[in-house]
Amino acid sequence: MRTDRLSGFRSVFTRHTALLLLVIVFFSLIRYRLRNMPLERDEGEYAYAGQLLLQGIPPYQLAYNMKLPGTYVAYAAAFALFGESVEAVRYGLMVVNAVTIVLVALLGRRLYGATGGLAAGICYACLSTSPAVLGLSAHATHFVVLAAIAGALLLIDPEEAPMWKIAAAGLCMGAAMVMKQPGAAFIASGAVYLLAKRRRALGVYLAGAAFPFAFTCFLLWRAGVFEHFWFWTVSYSKQYGTIVSLSDGFLLLLGMLPQVAGAAIMLWALAAIGVYQAVRVGRSFFLVSWLLFSFAAVAAGLYFRNHYFVMMLPAVSLLVGASVAASRRQRIIIAIFAAGIGIALFVVRTDLFTLNPLQVSARMYGDNPFPEARQLAAYLREHTPRQARIAVLGSEPEIYFYAQRHSATGYIYTYGLMEPQKYAHEMQEGMIAEIERAQPDYIIYVHSPSSWLRRPASDDRIFTWAGHFLATEYEPVEAPGSPRIETFRRTVTAAAK
């Protein structure tokens, strides 16, 4: 009898594993087909910072940003493995997504058995590839989720777990925060779970969680960029996080939820049912608290952008797994689940299976000048020596990566210069001073509104200065791109001064 049960378990496990692998291959092929999609701004930032890391240049020296540098390291690792290219970014995401699917399935299996784990893994594979959450782009949220799910898997059933496992869980959660600050919500989630399950292990967990950030601070201090790092990731980040009011944030959430759920509404509905099923059969504390802290990660700053919701997808998928595995009418729920996956894919079939990478980029990002940035960068590579410096007036850091040229200013984004925050004027003066000091060979002026997000109350100093500086020191040149991007070359007269 026992042998029969073991054989049956192995048979089920093998079938579930084979199906999950097929799902991973299926969605990986979608990503592979679209691997040449132009980088968007965040990807451009990570790619440029990763490129600099491989050159031995630390974060926050030539590229300022408020994000913690974990994703920079992840991009550098992808480049080291696959070469410095757009395709390498997509391959890195493909690997991260596949591993995360497996971890979500394993966590679901630990919670609700093989069927629940399989459903959770398939659900995450589908939702994380959706254009509704910009899932085809390698945003930091994918890396946050990978580290957080690894930590959660280590933290399940902590009562008898050895202390090294608790410390490792904390280490993973801390890595999630270093990928991007909202990952701190997952550290809090684990801490609350341990308070309920094994309070005496909390200190070990928190020590593990603190290590990635402490080690990051140490390395950046040794590299001589700690002051810049602290300003951008702490001082400015606080300002950025308080710009959106609670009422405006609520309206943003209401506007975004239909977009994010959209084609996958049946799966989100199953997740809602999963909350009830989790309460009915147990494990509700972990899943419900994970869901709440996942939402807290999404809500950081109250911006509620599409790709932020990637951090909620593991919780949603695990709840779907609970719904499938724990329902008394499992066949009906499985049919609804299969229909939900099918409808979600059918609605976005054109993006995933038909359109080329440029068309998909246009559908996801509208009229942002991402394809033009790539063309312009090729021109800059051909017309400048390797050691040339360039400056981009606008928020298009992907140009630096494509061009393989160093930035003349660390201000690779101009959003902060336009925001209603106390450092805006100081940032404008800083960018102006750095460009004037560097005297870059080329300056690229991006006229696209989405590259500035200029507001009625924004300081106009940078625009006044740019008009005068470009008129006296630079000359316009015909370069690939669109009317929204102008290219200026430093004049011989200016160079001789």
Brief summary of the model shown:
With 497 residues, the chain is mainly alpha-helical.
Helix-strand makeup class: mainly alpha
| Chain-averaged pLDDT | 93
Tally of structural domains: 2
| Straight-line N-to-C gap | 91 Å
The beta-strand count equals: 5
Number of helices: 22
Shape: globular
Rg estimate, integer Å: 24 Å
> Can you summarize the main beta sheet?
5 strands, mixed
| Lateral arrangement of strands in the main beta sheet | 2-1-3-5-4
- Classify the beta-strand content into a percent band: under 5%
Secondary-structure element series: HHHHHHHHHHHHHHHHHEHEHHEHEEH
Uncertain parts: none
The proportion of residues forming helix, as a percent range, comes to 55-70%
Properties at a glance:
497 residues; mainly alpha; Rossmann fold; 2 domains; 5-stranded mixed beta sheet; 68% helix; 4% strand
Written description of the protein model:
Helices cover 68% and strands 4% of the residues. It is built from 22 helices and 5 strands. The protein has helices at residues 2-33, 41-54, 70-82, 86-129, 140-155, 163-179, 184-197, 202-223, 226-240, 246-261, 265-281, 284-299, 313-326, 330-347, 349-354, 357-365, 370-383, 398-403, 415-418, 424-438, 461-473, 492-496; strands at 389-393, 406-407, 442-446, 474-477, 485-490. A 5-stranded mixed beta sheet has the order 2-1-3-5-4. α5 (140-155) runs antiparallel to α6 (163-179) and α7 (184-197) runs antiparallel to α12.
